[in-house]
């Protein structure tokens, strides 16, 4: 892989604060479609279930998830479903076709997730207040939060997959790929120039933090390399910096990143990285120098 890493330019924006959008988890169009089960939806569901791929994975999708996908098709965000690129604990990621290009579709499993791992991120996030324990509502709020986090990160000048649409437990976003192959994660590539890569990651962490967010699961597994750029992914769990665990999450993110780059031969520590990110006055000058 190349040693050059291009830093995307932030949009000129008003300083983002700690505001958040209220997350609406009321009955969705997808739930209504699933209940109504009209002929068109039934045919759609049958068609998608009959494809080889879904015979294998049928259990993954419940009725309302098919309806969510159906809604995304109706709204023109998806034309045809592609193959899975990842099956995780809480979500599966697929590709889909729309017009002449592919998009990534992250489908959260409502029944499979037990939220044990989500709890530490949910509790204390004002965006989740009053949502309670209802799994459907929690997952829906989570997906909306991921969408909002991606938007906010993007606005702050962090290269992330462009968020396209969200419907119930399904998120559609830009597919980071080259010739149809998903971009490789940092742990999967050889980094020729770790210094520049580290500087870019550090800058993105600062921008995210200055935009009021902490990633919360940042490591070489959630950064992909594509076209000379580093792209930060998987922002579902990102919390605002006023979350009671934000400090711990940031510390852990710094630790993961510094450890990774230390293994690439760099003399960096999580503590230094943490202090650098926290010290937003001290670094303004140096980042201006770099620009
Ligand atoms: P995990 O639990 O494994 O951390 P997750 O289920 O929360 O992951 P992601 O990390 O968002 O899901 O995605 C899983 C994998 O799918 C990623 O490691 C990446 O390889 C791939 N992936 C996810 N989103 C995209 C995207 N927009 N473009 C390309 N690849 C993607
Ligand atoms: Mn991930």
Please outline what is shown here.
This protein is α+β, with helices and mostly antiparallel strands and 291 residues long. The chain has ten helices and twelve strands.
Describe this entry's structure for a reader.
With 291 residues, the chain is α+β, with helices and mostly antiparallel strands. It has two domains: 29-178, Phosphorylase Kinase, domain 1, CATH 3.30.200.20; 181-290, Transferase(Phosphotransferase) domain 1 (Transferase(Phosphotransferase), domain 1), CATH 1.10.510.10. The protein has helices spanning 29-36, 39-50, 52-57, 63-74, 116-122, 135-155, 194-210, 246-263, 270-278, 280-290, and strands spanning 80-87, 91-98, 101-108, 163-167, 170-174, 177-178, 181-182, 184-185, 213-214, 223-226, 229-232, 239-240. α1 crosses α4 and α7 packs across α9. Adenosine-5'-triphosphate is lined by residues 85-86, 88-91, 93, 104, 106, 161, 173-177, 182-183, 185, 222, 233-234.
